[in-house]
Amino acid sequence: MAILTPPCVLMLFVPSVMVLISSLRGFSVGELEVGFYSTSCPNAEEIVRWVVAEAANSDSAIPAALLRLHYHDCIVRGCDGSILIRDPDDASLEKKSSNHAGVRGFDVIERAKARLEAECEGVVSCADIVALAARDAVFLSRGPYYDVPTGRRDGRVSNVSDASHMPDIRESVAVLKAKFAKKGLSEKDLVLLSAAHTIGTTACFFLQDRLYNFFEGGGSDPSINPHFLPELKLRCPAGGDINVRLPLDPGSETVFDMHILRNIRSGLGVIESDAKLYADASTRAIIDSYLGSLSPVPSFDRDFAESMVRMGMLDVHTGSHGEIRRVCSRFN
């Protein structure tokens, strides 16, 4: 099968461009391995890359959606594709959780899977496709390119109750830290993975309490920059359409960069959990470290890539555990 790169994204996938974690073919991380499919399905990563680029060409919101999909998959039962299982008549499936409201990109994963099955039947897992698609989504948004260790197998469980304890945008930083720590992720990971909000949008639904009912008697979150508050209220008026969408990183919502950290520092964080990161001493120090308060300044792109790889290893199935689904939306 010949693999071509869509003309609009040709230069984005030149391998020597923006590679922050050098290619380590065969390098193992736990039971996962960079280049796991190099023999069994040598075009696997290129096929996923093509499908993601193709989708992004027709829908500019797809990169952010795929990045979010990977997080929502990993943070529940681990990176096992449990969120992908779908059945409109089965309310017990993980995807039905209100904590997954608005998550999309499933069709992109299914298209990649179909092409992979045509090339290498029963070889590449859906969980790996999700991880690879997130990496390619970041790079398409001018973010870092990084090697993704692969070899995950797909889980055989998808339960709505498993998603009930996900991190929530209304929770305190202390609670968010604890939930991340339970997954083996650090405070630094919390900041870096939150910074994935540098691309994408959110709905006014998630801002209603912050804008109008932050206190018991009403009122707005005082941490919102007073010059920014009227803009947010104009976009999301009280009693207005809660489905209206606005950028999570105003001024840089289509480019993957650390602009969101500057916005958070300046009181321009849109959702509550992002804004709270600057009110906590330890997460504030991490944000400030990327904005020049330390010398040398750490590499945001490299650190983000490392956090993504770390998250991508959460509770993975490998070896004889799990399965390789033929269709990502249902168990074999």
TrEMBL record:
<dbReference type="InterPro" id="IPR000823">
    <property type="entry name" value="Peroxidase_pln"/>
</dbReference>
<feature type="binding site">
    <location>
        <position position="249"/>
    </location>
    <ligand>
        <name>Ca(2+) 2</name>
    </ligand>
</feature>
<feature type="binding site">
    <location>
        <position position="94"/>
    </location>
    <ligand>
        <name>Ca(2+) 1</name>
    </ligand>
</feature>
<feature type="binding site">
    <location>
        <position position="167"/>
    </location>
    <ligand>
        <name>substrate</name>
    </ligand>
</feature>
<comment type="similarity">
    <text>Belongs to the peroxidase family. Classical plant (class III) peroxidase subfamily.</text>
</comment>
<dbReference type="GO" id="GO:0042744">
    <property type="term" value="P:hydrogen peroxide catabolic process"/>
</dbReference>
<feature type="binding site">
    <location>
        <position position="257"/>
    </location>
    <ligand>
        <name>Ca(2+) 2</name>
    </ligand>
</feature>
<feature type="site" description="Transition state stabilizer">
    <location>
        <position position="68"/>
    </location>
</feature>
<dbReference type="InterPro" id="IPR002016">
    <property type="entry name" value="Haem_peroxidase"/>
</dbReference>
<dbReference type="GO" id="GO:0005576">
    <property type="term" value="C:extracellular region"/>
</dbReference>
<dbReference type="GO" id="GO:0009505">
    <property type="term" value="C:plant-type cell wall"/>
</dbReference>
<keyword id="KW-0560">Oxidoreductase</keyword>
<comment type="function">
    <text>Removal of H(2)O(2), oxidation of toxic reductants, biosynthesis and degradation of lignin, suberization, auxin catabolism, response to environmental stresses such as wounding, pathogen attack and oxidative stress. These functions might be dependent on each isozyme/isoform in each plant tissue.</text>
</comment>
<dbReference type="InterPro" id="IPR033905">
    <property type="entry name" value="Secretory_peroxidase"/>
</dbReference>
<feature type="disulfide bond">
    <location>
        <begin position="204"/>
        <end position="236"/>
    </location>
</feature>
<feature type="active site" description="Proton acceptor">
    <location>
        <position position="72"/>
    </location>
</feature>
<feature type="binding site">
    <location>
        <position position="73"/>
    </location>
    <ligand>
        <name>Ca(2+) 1</name>
    </ligand>
</feature>
<feature type="binding site">
    <location>
        <position position="198"/>
    </location>
    <ligand>
        <name>Ca(2+) 2</name>
    </ligand>
</feature>
<feature type="domain" description="Plant heme peroxidase family profile">
    <location>
        <begin position="31"/>
        <end position="332"/>
    </location>
</feature>
<dbReference type="GO" id="GO:0004601">
    <property type="term" value="F:peroxidase activity"/>
</dbReference>
<feature type="disulfide bond">
    <location>
        <begin position="74"/>
        <end position="79"/>
    </location>
</feature>
<feature type="binding site" description="axial binding residue">
    <location>
        <position position="197"/>
    </location>
    <ligand>
        <name>heme b</name>
    </ligand>
</feature>
<keyword id="KW-0964">Secreted</keyword>
<dbReference type="Pfam" id="PF00141">
    <property type="entry name" value="peroxidase"/>
</dbReference>
<keyword id="KW-0732">Signal</keyword>
<keyword id="KW-0408">Iron</keyword>
<keyword id="KW-0349">Heme</keyword>
<protein>
    <recommendedName>
        <fullName>Peroxidase</fullName>
        <ecNumber>1.11.1.7</ecNumber>
    </recommendedName>
</protein>
<dbReference type="GO" id="GO:0046872">
    <property type="term" value="F:metal ion binding"/>
</dbReference>
<comment type="similarity">
    <text>Belongs to the peroxidase family. Ascorbate peroxidase subfamily.</text>
</comment>
<feature type="binding site">
    <location>
        <position position="82"/>
    </location>
    <ligand>
        <name>Ca(2+) 1</name>
    </ligand>
</feature>
<feature type="disulfide bond">
    <location>
        <begin position="126"/>
        <end position="328"/>
    </location>
</feature>
<feature type="disulfide bond">
    <location>
        <begin position="41"/>
        <end position="120"/>
    </location>
</feature>
<feature type="binding site">
    <location>
        <position position="80"/>
    </location>
    <ligand>
        <name>Ca(2+) 1</name>
    </ligand>
</feature>
<keyword id="KW-1015">Disulfide bond</keyword>
<dbReference type="GO" id="GO:0006979">
    <property type="term" value="P:response to oxidative stress"/>
</dbReference>
<dbReference type="InterPro" id="IPR019793">
    <property type="entry name" value="Peroxidases_heam-ligand_BS"/>
</dbReference>
<dbReference type="GO" id="GO:0020037">
    <property type="term" value="F:heme binding"/>
</dbReference>
<dbReference type="GO" id="GO:0006950">
    <property type="term" value="P:response to stress"/>
</dbReference>
<dbReference type="InterPro" id="IPR010255">
    <property type="entry name" value="Haem_peroxidase_sf"/>
</dbReference>
<keyword id="KW-0479">Metal-binding</keyword>
<keyword id="KW-0106">Calcium</keyword>
